[in-house]
Amino acid sequence: MINFQYLRTTTSKSALSLISKDKNAKFLAGGTNLIDLMKRGVATPEKLIDINHVPLKQIELVGDTIIIGALASNTAVAEHPLIKEKLPLLAMALNAGASAQLRNVATVGGNMMQRTRCGYFYDTEMPCNKRQPGSGCGAIGGFNRMHAIFGTSEKCIAVHPSDMCVALIALDAIVVLANPKGERKILFKDFHRLAGDTPQLDNNLKADEMIIRLEISVNQLAKNFHYLKVRDRASYAFALVSVAAALEISADHKITEVRLSMGGVAHKPWRLTASENFLKGKEASATNFEEAAKLAMKDAKGFGENDFKIRMAPNSIIEALTVATSKA
Amino acid sequence: MHSSDSKNNQGDSRRDFLKKSSLITAVALTPTIALKAAEGQADERFAELFERIPLNLMVNNQTYQASVEPRVTLLDYLREELHLTGTKKGCDHGQCGACTVHVDGERVNSCLSLAVMNEGKKITTIEGLANGNELHPMQAAFIKHDGFQCGYCTPGQIMSAVACVNEGHTNSRSEISEYMSGNICRCGAYPNIVDAIVEVSKGGNKI
Predict the structure, then answer these.
(1) Given A31, A98, A104, which is nearest B117 (Cβ)?
(2) Phi and psi of B196, rounded to 5°?
(3) Cα angle B7, B9, B12; round to 5
């Protein structure tokens, strides 16, 4: 690992002041992705600002809003009674990600900030537009079994690997960002971005900003939910595809509210808006689930090795909806 | 007897050789760095890059004061500086769990944690589990159930297993497997590892 300057801070104000002074500086939270990238020579920051002592670990209910601090660990969130009761989809998705060791250290903000990536991004001998803009994409025409089928660009077909984020986009979370002038709030769905012509950018966080907390409204989606993660081994592997499904079902079995999103299929967590719109007001039935799954796949595009996802994804959507709605 | 002694000697001398050779490397490098800095071409930033950070931590109930380069991982600090070589380096990328230690009671991959991030923390490694000559119950259970073959992943497996029991994720064999999935055993001792954890969690031994 190339050496770097290490600074530690205890307030978000000083963290923001430090980051704004140096464009080659990065925040260090759990470090489970960043340190890994630094060991591979993929990330080479000159300065790390350790923010682990900034007091942003709260998990609490304020009015009708659940607040989750950016530095709460993935384990702390997944195991918290409030989250288990009010946002079980989030707890389920978190527990499907990484390993117990990594979840103990990885933070909510860090999980969001982990790089959208693939094997070519990690291999500094290979071309990768995300790592080195203009060098080409090794995955297009190369090994692309794990890659995206939605919203791809000619520059990059990597996927965002988070499970947590797939649940958060379904839950309409709000991301609160701090900057030297104050705070701003953005919708979770607007935090991450598609690769487009600038695959080096994974999200819309500005250089002088930091994630402070998440705000999630208490909802009625805590009963009929499921997070389905399909992967090469039973645990501790990235998703081939994953589906977050949460619904509100009326007494006469009508879908009054539905949230659907996918992981492992795009450069960002992928919300299935067309499928949601179709399902709203309809009966929770196998026929409708199949139609919703078909709608979700409208613009899917395979790259060879990942063509199987075009069949696996709709089946996974149907399965997630079926499991979610069969909970009594 | 004789052959086992000579084996130990070989092991020791190999480790000593590695230590000496890395010392030589360090000595060989230092003057060049110092020279470059002295040439006046290096700015303050250059000097800062080589700054060592003071570090205070407690490892296995013993306090340590040191100064380390920021890039030194907790794993390398434990192994190379404190010579606590029970904690293993497997993949060095958080994928295998061989480097698992407890930080303030929670299991973490020491390969993905910088030593300096652990200022003031309490670290427990595999060397800190036994009570003198008395094995920790999880160590005893691993031996009883033959929970290893080559043994390389075992320190990490045991540290993770102790945490798994303390976290309460031992309600079924499948839950144990799920919560132990961050520890890879290429010999495939998984069923026996789960047996050991089941026994300890059921109070066959106190933890």
Answers:
(1) A31
(2) -65, -45
(3) 110
Q: Give start and end residues of each alpha helix (H) in chain B.
A: 2-38, 44-49, 74-76, 137-144, 154-167, 173-179, 190-201
Interface confidence: ipTM more than 0.90: yes
Q: Rounded to 5, what percent of chain B is helix, strand, coil?
A: 50, 15, 35
| pLDDT tens digits along A145-172 | 999 999 999 999 999 999 999 999 999 9
Give the separation between CA A284 and CA A276, rounded to whole angstroms: 12
Per-residue pLDDT reduced to its tens digit, B177-198: 999 999 999 999 999 999 999 9
Across A105-172, where does the E strand assignment appear?
Answer: none
Q: So what's the pLDDT on residue A327?
A: 84
pLDDT of residue B31: 41
Stretch A222-244: mean pLDDT: 97
The confidence score (pLDDT) of residue B17 equals 46
HSE at residue B126, side-chain half, CA atoms within 13 A, is 26
Candidates B45, B71, B109; nearest CB to A101: B109
CA end-to-end span of chain B: 35
Q: What is the reported pLDDT for B50? A: 60
Phi, psi (deg, nearest 5) at residue A178: -105, 145
Q: How much is the average pLDDT of B131-140?
A: 96
Instruction: Answer yes or no: are the C-beta atoms of A91 and A78 closer than 8 Å.
Output: yes
Closest-CA distance of chain B to residue A107, Å: 13
Q: Measured between CA atoms, how close is B24 to chain A, in angstroms?
A: 20
Contact B53, B63 (CB under 8 A): no
Cβ-Cβ contacts under 8 Å for A16 (sequence gap 6 or more): A178, A179, A180, A208, A209, A210
Please indicate whether, in this complex, the C-beta atoms of B182 and A102 are within 8 angstroms of each other.
yes
Side-chain-facing half-sphere of A65: CA atoms under 13 Å: 13
Q: Tell the CATH topology of B134-207.
A: DNA polymerase; domain 1 (1.10.150)
Domain residues for the domain of A17 are: 5-52
Which residues partner with A177 through β-bridges? A184, A211
- Name the residue ranges covered by the structural domains of chain B: 3-48, 51-128, 134-207
Is the minimum CB–CB distance between A232 and chain B shorter than 8 Å? no
- Contact status, residue A161 vs residue A96, Cβ threshold 8 Å: no
* Interchain contact, B160 vs A104, CB within 8 Å: no
Superfamily classification of domain B51-128: Beta-grasp domain (3.10.20.30)
Q: Does the pLDDT value for residue B74 go beyond 50?
A: yes
- Residue B2 above 80 pLDDT? no
- Supply the mean pLDDT for chain A: 97
Q: How confident is the model at residue B18, as a pLDDT?
A: 46
Q: Which residues of A touch B183 (CB under 8 A)?
A: 99
B109 touches chain A (CB under 8 A): yes
Asked whether the beta carbons of residue B70 and residue A3 sit closer than 8 angstroms, the reply is: yes
